[in-house]
Amino acid sequence: MTSADLVLAGSYDYGVVALSAVIAILGSYAALDLGERVTFARGGSRLAWLIGGCVAMGIGTWSMHYVGMLAFRLPVSVQYHWPTSLLSLLPSIFASAIALFVVSRPTMGWLHALGGGLFMGVGISALHYTGMASMRMQAMCHYSLALVTLSVVLAMAFSLLSLRLTFLFRVEASGRRLRKIASALLMGAAICVMHYTGMAAASYTRSTKVPNLSHAVSISSLDIAGIGMVTVMVLNVALLTSVLDRIQKQRVFLDELFEQAPQAVALKNVDNQVVRVNREFTQVFGYTPHEVLGRSLNDLIVPEESRHNAQRNAELVALGQRVDAEVVRQRKDGSLLHALMVGVPVSVPGRQIAAYSIYSDITRRKRAEEELQRSFKQLRELAARLQSVREEERARVAREIHDELGQALTAIKIDLASLMRALRTDQEEESEKAESILKLVDQTILCVRRIATELRPGILDDLGLVAAVEWAAEEFEARTGTKCRLDLPQDDIVIDQERTTAIFRIFQETLTNVTRHAEATEVDVRLGREDGHIVLEVRDNGRGIGQEQLSTGRSLGILGMRERALLLGGELIISGTPGKGTIVRLRIPQAHPVQSEDSE
Ligand SMILES: Nc1ncnc2c1ncn2[C@@H]1O[C@H](COP(=O)(O)OP(=O)(O)O)[C@@H](O)[C@H]1O
Ligand SMILES: [Mg+2]
After folding, report:
1. Largest CA distance in the chain
2. Claim: this prediction has a pTM higher than 0.70
3. N or C terminus of the chain: which is more exposed, having fewer CB within 10 Å?
4. Spelled out in words, what is the top-level CATH class assigned to the domain 459-600?
5. Partners of 535 in the beta sheet?
6. Of all atoms in ligand 1, which is nearest to the CA of residue 554?
7. For residue 517, what are the contacts with CB-CB under 8 A and spacing of at least 6?
8. Cα of 540 to ligand 1 centre, how many Å?
9. Residue 355, Ramachandran bin (φ over 0: left; ψ between -120 and 50: alpha; else beta)
């Protein structure tokens, strides 16, 4: 017999090889998943997950190696010593325990990873070679030291890889599923490579020695299928438990979220009946869950006058639309509350739509808002009153100055004139004195007129808005030398005195601002009517008002102008372009036609 005859040529059953690969991949996936479970479990449940995980993974690893070993066929009958086989389960569970322990720690330093990989590799190698030792046949087994070493090193290297990957994937996060599957494939492939390297390390030669077949069993294809199936089942149960555990945790989490939410939440079924409410709902509306279950919110918390709107909102939600609304609702004790309501549709299987409604009680905010509005209104009224009082006062003072002072000065002038006439021709000195007094009186008369006009331009009352604007513009041009182009209506704009005054004062203030701030050379003024409004537009070509002057509340002149416009239901818009100029645009509705009281 030649030595070639002595060597037993082995072959692989590829179906079984494939089965071993499937088990390796499934086992790897289970390992990734269990790593995650153990990491997040605490106390007693952590120990349970650790033990359950070790056993499931241990069986998975063990089974993969056995199935892989059974894929190898020798031309002699092979039996297996079952106590040894069973013994090999121990290093497998040991390796799994190390793995789960290492990956579930808060951090993974290189030392831990290396140590874990080393021990796990040793465990897997022990499993593998103990498994090989359980073979009973009429043949001798020889090991190639180089390949054995290689297989042990590979076992360690792949263990290290698996540990790192599992550690990376232990954090639950959506979108990681695909990467998790990819990692499981990689790990499964790695396990197969290690295993079949180990198989290649052994060669068998024919032997005449009859093997000791006590406690040995032969394993048929059917048994292999059985082992594979049981393993797959074990791993599936482990994975399923893991999924159930996760769902349970999420449920608890969501329940807590629902109950503790600071808004009142009601879940409704497709028939619009309440199926669940949270604690805040009871707080806000006064109904206990027991009192609302199975009933419609419309009957319970919607006041009579809001039913129609509530119904419409419910219909929108039923169509799959989200509804946001400010609503009025009723508590159990009949009191009303303002609430922000959000109606959200939820699709449930069977194409039906259920919904939940969320309410935040905004009664207090609403009250504060109303209070604020009221005090705003009062302030406006006060400001309006002050304006009109000021205007009246100015007019009165102007009249007094004009009439009383003016008349007195005119009288002085007349008397002085007659006095001058009475002077003799030789009284030259006295005559000169009188001349200068007369001049002074004339100047004073002019001065008094100017002051009176400034206080209240008589032109405004006598000739109307258009003439007053024209006069003020001319004054402005004469005083500042800034060219002023006017675009005024042909006829006068006849509106009530309040409006006339307001528009005129805003115009004056605008021109003052141009003088003081704009450094403009030209100003365009347009006054006209636009669909029921009086519009005044003043454009200058100066440096342009800045955004900060417009947005700060400190520009009191502008604020006053705005207030005046608002009081009359109008608006004032100011815009500026740096270096190009400023546009002030005022729009005030024309006075309502005087309402005649129809008397029959
Ligand atoms: N026509 C303008 N051109 C450039 N800047 C302006 C113009 N009008 C107003 N401003 C800017 O807006 C600011 C606020 O104006 P205003 O409220 O009238 O206050 P005041 O005139 O008392 O400074 C001014 O200080 C000025 O900087
Ligand atoms: Mg000003």
Report:
1. 176
2. no
3. C
4. alpha beta
5. 528, 587
6. 17
7. 542, 543, 545
8. 12
9. beta
Q: Please, are residues 394 and 402 in contact by the beta-carbon 8 Å criterion?
A: no
Ligand 1 nearest-atom number relative to CA 509: 18
Burial 45-63 (b: 16+ CB within 10 A, else e): eeeebbebbbbbbbbbbbb
CA distance 468 to 477: 14
Counting every residue written for the chain, the total comes to 600
pLDDT digits (tens, 9 = 90+) for 410-466: 999 999 999 888 888 888 888 899 999 999 999 999 999 888 888 888 788 888 999
3-state class (DSSP) for residue 528: strand
DSSP string, 196-211: HHHHHTEEEEE--SPP
Q: What is the band of 595 on the pLDDT scale with cuts at 50, 70, 90?
A: very low
Q: Which residues line ligand 1 (CB under 6 A)?
A: 513-514, 516-518, 540, 542-545, 549, 555-558, 582
The two structure tokens encoding residue 251: 């449920």
Ligand nearest to the CA of 555: 1
> Which residues have C-beta within 8 Å of that of residue 598, sequence separation ≥ 6?
none
Q: What is the Cα–Cα distance from 57 to 28, expressed in whole angstroms?
A: 8
Domain residue spans of the chain = 7-254, 262-361, 366-456, 459-600
504/568 Cα distance (integer angstroms): 13
**If DSSP codes are grouped into helix, strand and coil, which group holds residue 63?**
helix
What pLDDT is stored for residue 175 in this prediction? 56
Q: Which two tokens stand for residue 216?
A: 């040995």
Range in 22-26, 347-351, 396-400, 586-590 with the lowest mean pLDDT: 347-351
Query: pLDDT at residue 101 above 60?
Result: yes
- In CATH terms, 262-361 corresponds, of 3.30.450.20, 3.40.630.30, 3.40.50.720, 3.40.50.1370, to 3.30.450.20
The full DSSP string for 348-397 is ETTTEEEEEEEEEE-HHHHHHHHHHHHHHHHHHHHHHHHHHHHHHHHHHH
Identity at 199, one-letter amino acid code:
M
- Say if residue 593's pLDDT is above 50: no
